[in-house]
Amino acid sequence: MARAGLSTQRLIRAGAELADEVGFDQVTVSELARRFDVKVASLYSHLKNSHDLKTGIALLALEELAERAADALAGRAGKDALAAFANAYRDYARAHPGRYAATRFPLDSRTAAASAGGRHAQMTRAILRGYDLPEPDQTHAVRLLGSVFHGFVSLEASGGFSHSAPGSPETWTWVVDHLDALLRSLRPPGP
User: Fold this and answer.
1) Is 112 exposed, middle or buried (0-12, 13-18, 19+ CB in 10 A)?
2) Which H, E and C letters describe 87-155, residue by residue?
3) Smallest Cα–Cα separation from 102: which of 119, 86, 113, 115?
4) pLDDT per residue over 103-121, tens digit each?
């Protein structure tokens, strides 16, 4: 029987908070049970195992991040859209490091297809339409932006940029400016 007050969504949200506090890799059903001061078995009517919990956290994080990115993009185009999108990712990663790590959790193909992950790709392609990139350049650019954003926020989170000047905010602005310049340089020549 399910314990009163516990639900799958409540446990996933608590797991996401735990991930932000201790790191996504440290999240387990056992640790969550300790949080609620219940036996692990009490959670199994809501979650199958730690993988199920981590999948739920990943889906929650992908949805939250997609919502933030969509809000940031509203009414913007070109470099403004690129910067807003980039900042939404960086800000989310900084505010929710465990949840951000969860966005990289491997999902099976069916779960991934039903997740907000597709919205991330659609938003990236919407930004890139402003740069008028043909295929396969557009696909390469989607991968480039994802790699740069993820690489930067991961290195920043681990202190990789804290040992020398300039500070990471200045470098972030430089990166976004140069990504914009690169994308504009890839436009096919006009008639």
Assistant:
1) middle
2) HHHHHHHHHCHHHHHHCCCCCCHHHHHHCCHHHHHHHHHHHHHCCCCCCCHHHHHHHHHHHHHHHHHHH
3) 115
4) 999 999 999 999 999 999 9
User: What SS3 class is residue 53?
Assistant: helix
pLDDT, tens digit (0-9, with 9 covering 90-100), for 8-36: 999 999 999 999 999 999 999 999 999 99
CA dist., res. 84 & res. 176, Å (int):
10
Residue 5: left if φ>0, alpha if ψ -120 to 50, beta else—which one? Answer: left
End-to-end CA distance of the chain: 69
- Cα separation, 143 vs 136, in Å, equals 11
Contact 104, 120 (CB under 8 A): no
- For the full predicted model, state whether its pTM sits above 0.85: yes
Dist CA 52 CA 28 (whole Å) = 10
Fill in the amino acid letter for 157.
Answer: A
Orientation of helix 78-95 relative to helix 50-73, angle to 10°:
150
Angle between helices 29-36 and 50-73 (to 10 degrees): 80
Who's near 134: CB < 8 A, 6+ residues apart? 188
Q: Can you tell me the distance from the alpha carbon of 145 to that of 136, in angstroms, rounded to the nearest whole number? A: 14
